[in-house]
Amino acid sequence: MRDPLIRRLPRELKSDAGKYIIIFIFMVIVIGFVSGFLVASKSLITAYNDSFVKYNIEDGNFTTVTIADNALLDAISGEGAEVYENFYKDRETDDIDSTLRIYKLREEVNRVGVNEGALPSSVNEIAIDRMYADNHSIKVGDVLSVDGRKLTVTGLVALSDYSALYQSPTDTLFEAFSFGVAVMTEQGFDEFDDAGLNYNYAWTYNDKPADDLDAKDRAESMLETISEKAMLTRFVPAYTNQAIQFVGDDTGRDRVTFITFLYVVIAILAFIMAITTSNTITKEANVIGTLRASGYTRGELIRHYLSMPALVTLISAVIGNIVGYTLFVEVALGIYYGNYSLPLFDILWNVDAFVQTTVIPVLLMIAINFFILSSKMRLSPLKFIRRDLKKNGRKKALRLNTKIGIMHRFRIRVILQNLPNYIMIVVGIFLANVILLLGMGFPKLLENNETLIAENMICDYQYILKAPVETENDSAEKYCAGGLMTIEGRRKSEAVTIYGISSNSSYFDIEFGEGVYISEAFAAKNSIEIGDTVTMKEEFSTKEYSFTVDGISGSPTTLAVYMERSYFNEVFGNEADYFNGYFSDEELTDIDELYIMNKLTIDDFTKLSRQMNNSMGEVFDMFYWFGLVMFMLIIYLLSKIIIEKNAQSISMTKILGYTNSEISGLYVITTSIVVIASFILTMPIVDVIMRILCAEIFAAYAGWIPYSVPASVYVTIIAMGIAAYAVIAFMQFGRVKKIPLDTALKNVE
Amino acid sequence: MFLEISNIRKGFGEGDSRTEVLKGIDLGIEKGEFCVLLGPSGSGKSTLLNIIGGIDNADSGYISIGGEKTADMNEKALTLYRRKHLGYIFQMYNLIPNLNIKENIEVGAYLSDAPLDVDELLHTLGLYEHRHKLPNQLSGGQQQRTAIGRAIIKNPDILLCDEPTGALDYRTSKEILKLIEEVNRKYGNTVVMVTHNDAIKNMADRVIKLRDGMVRSNRVNESRISAEELDW
What we know:
The complex is a heterodimer of chains A (749) and B (232).
Chain A: H1 8-15, H2 17-54, E1 60-64, H3 70-78, E2 81-85, E3 88-92, E4 99-104, E5 112-117, E6 125-129, H4 130-135, E7 143-146, E8 149-159, E9 179-184, H5 186-191, E10 197-205, H6 212-229, E11 232-237, H7 242-283, H8 285-294, H9 298-339, H10 351-376, H11 381-385, H12 406-417, H13 419-455, E12 461-465, E13 477-486, E14 495-501, E15 516-518, H14 520-526, E16 533-537, E17 544-552, E18 560-564, H15 565-571, E19 581-584, E20 596-600, H16 602-645, H17 647-656, H18 660-699, H19 711-738
Parallel strand pairs in A: 4-9, 6-8, 14-18, 15-17
Antiparallel strand pairs in A: 1-10, 1-11, 2-10, 3-4, 3-10, 5-8, 6-9, 7-8, 12-19, 12-20, 13-14, 13-16, 13-19, 15-18, 16-17
Chain B: E1 3-12, E2 19-29, E3 34-38, H1 45-52, E4 60-65, E5 68-69, H2 75-85, E6 86-90, H3 101-109, H4 118-125, H5 140-152, E7 158-162, H6 170-187, E8 190-195, E9 206-211, E10 214-220
Parallel strand pairs in B: 3-8, 3-9, 6-7, 7-8
Antiparallel strand pairs in B: 1-2, 1-4, 4-5, 9-10
Helix pairs in contact in B: 3-5, 5-6
């Protein structure tokens, strides 16, 4: 015979429909969101991994000062590699403030995926990166003005070696506003003059490296071979090329984050379910006792009380997956396409995502509920019948100082009685705070980063020259600029700008001694202190340099070392009066463009934060709303339980003559105190976690973004949380009001 | 008449399933009187007590206490009425489980501008040494004494007792009855006690018998005996 208790389930569902509907909707959203992302990211990763073969992505590239001769090409072949011409020209767009890196159509290496339209076929046609086009609302058929030429956009494409649009390997982050890539026909490419032509070559190994270590060894050998035969300006093995690697690394990180996030949320919901079920068991204690006395086993009853949480989770997971595969996958793809330059790829059904978003959440829900329920059900039938549900004998009451007024003591007792609920509220608020701070704090952090950059600009125009040339401008001050790499250790090796500053500089207020000064960013990212020795190496050789740190000053956002110009020239073997750049607060108009390698303004330094904000803005918004909804849900469910659990006492206090406001003062205000205190007290911990989290996130990128979220964000989160809670408190007040006086008359004690 | 009950009618349910529980009750109880409402199950005695206590409404008729009619009161006024005038004692004690014994009594004291002394009352109730314990650490009799303490700490005009000994054994029941009697004597509260134990009528000043929602008899007990002398 079928277990007759099953018939209770629909009734249980009906009687507590509000709770189950809320948990169901929330789970569907979370599971849908995560499964959408997992499916999208798995499809993306599969397409990304396949793209290495499909588009024949390079194993590295290098740029030489002059065109490579046969001796060099032969030497590369000797390294067991195929070498391909991969010349490009950086050209300014006329109507948009951006640089377009133009390549010839590629047929052999780093082939191009067409997302929309077609590849160019005539001289005045161009196919541009799809993401760059989206950012500037350029469509197929539009005419783009590039360096004085009118070019028709024939297609929106993805260059396989630019899945993340890093203009330079040393950039902190890719960005597709002021930088884009494009392909043209050979004739179209040649039509541009050769100014800014880069003799770039890509190579592929005949036998692919076994792993990154092998790739590193072979790249070092390749570097030695090439640098013997040519002067290099760029050497980027694929395993270090962020433009190629970033998508794979970042998507991998995303998956771990999403899965962890899902399990944490499911665990919280499981605890909430377990608390509500425990509450039901307390209410139904005598019925349980009677059933146990009549022969029902502990297991049968545990199974009965587990059914609803498991069923709700299972249904939510199945529907969540349907929503994930149909709806959220599009959202996820939108975000990935908004971040990366990806070719079109198919959505692949994957078993992993189904297991991770269906099987594991259901098992997690069952495991947590089973653990709590089986411990609760361990009592004897008699204890259930007597409603004596304390496991370890009768618990002693904690003594409270009687000088504390009865109403305050009452509130303390409510907290002690509902400790598991309140602990879950604190944990929930803590997590919601982390999510809210990510959602609200991150954009502010990036915004603040721009302000920091502006405040710490050495000058308005920073020039890097190809050769020393003089200027008549009085504002200009000579300096030397060079680059070294940090030594690979816990963090990846990355570029550091070395500045040689003129003595009596009007742009730097530093009295140099025997050592060097380092930027705040360099110190923060690598935990360097005054008095330490920093060792760096040349990018294309193994030569190392060590400096003693005399002070920390300047840029909190870029990795830099400052030293006196004379010392710089001595260290790097230059002539005593050598320089290769100017600091200036005015634009230098008397220097020929040919001599200028780079002109850096505030826009160049802030482009990274802008791209981050643009590509992650939607995610921040999602975090924000999700955090808020999660917070409200947790508080709603748990405070509802507290009121329900105390319905008898509330009813009795009403009979005694307590007003609804006084009773709310005992039960609702107590929760309010816990909620507000949790908001305020968890914030410093959340702050520390965010600092650690951000340090880890930003460490993955070149450069540095210091953690500085204005206090107003914290205040806003707390104020917003309290305002959201006010809505719930109002609902709970209504709940208290609705409890009838005759509840106390039902002899359930 | 201190407590006036006039033509109280009350029914439950709709249409065919409607049951008239009280069919026009008229009563008067003097201030300080110990009144017992006696009757079998379903006679309407608890319903009447709840209407007197303002936790249930009559379909018609009115209750007047010291000239104040409860039917004219809104919810707020009813709350104030219970707060000012009434103390309640139930069969199942209805103590607040997460408050200790002293705190449960203090919950009652909080409602009064001039409550009795809590510690003194704890001594009177024989609960002083148990004051830090939770209700579930005490016996039924001790819990009921706590409930009595909570009800009388604010020195109410009327003490409403709904089967206060219904869940207790003979010896404990007598203890509780003695306590209520003592309270009635010491503080002069009017006591209205619902019971189906016929023996208890002997300790009352007034005995009202109900059956089928009607008053079958209403008499003053000329030969009231003490709770100590009761036997059943």
